[in-house]
Amino acid sequence: MTAKIESEINFENVDFDFYKTLHHWLFSDLYEWAGKIRNVNISKKGTVFCKSDDIERIGVLKFKRLQKLDFLKNLTKEEFVEELTELYNDLNMLHPFREGNGRTLRLFITLLVRNADYNISFVECDSDLLLIATIKAAQGDTNLLRDVFTDLVKS
């Protein structure tokens, strides 16, 4: 399903609603609440995610910032990876859905990277390393996550 969405979706009118729509496309067969932000507070492996009352406001702001940055187009690879690392961590910490945040985030990042004329394949990524990197980033150390994206993002 993810590959089909990757090839069929147009990276247009990208905002927080677009992000929620990706989640809906991925999970509407599983969850009746697919595409809807969570209304409960959650944490996982010691990481406390964004309070449910703040998700919509912060999500809209993150996507407005991304739009102001022209969706990370025309950046050097180093600048691109720096911005991508921050965005990935921010959206991971937002964790807007009850389930399916990781898959939605990876799909969105894949679309974003391709739109900026770079390539990325999460299949090539060690999933344990990515998990460790996201946990460290949630604790304030984004170095490992940046290293993961430096290796994953190709020109």
Name the descriptors.
155 residues; mainly alpha; Fic-like fold; two-stranded antiparallel ribbon; 7 helices
Q: Helical content, roughly?
A: 55-70%
Q: Identify the CATH architecture.
A: Orthogonal Bundle
Overall pLDDT metric = 95
Between the first and last Cα atoms, what is the distance in angstroms?
Answer: 26 Å
Structure classification = mainly alpha
Output the CATH class name.
Mainly Alpha
CATH fold-level label? Fic-like fold
Helices and strands, with pairings:
Layout: H1 2-8, H2 16-27, E1 43-44, E2 47-48, H3 55-68, H4 77-94, H5 101-115, H6 127-138, H7 143-152
Antiparallel strand pairs: 1-2
What does this structure look like?
The protein has seven helices and two strands. It is globular, with a radius of gyration of 15 Å. The mean pLDDT is 95. α3 runs antiparallel to α4 (77-94), α4 runs antiparallel to α5 (101-115) and α6 (127-138) packs antiparallel against α7 (143-152). By secondary structure, it is mainly alpha-helical. It has helices at residues 2-8, 16-27, 55-68, 77-94, 101-115, 127-138, 143-152, and strands spanning 43-44, 47-48. The chain has a single domain (10-29, 50-152), classed as Orthogonal Bundle (Fic-like fold).
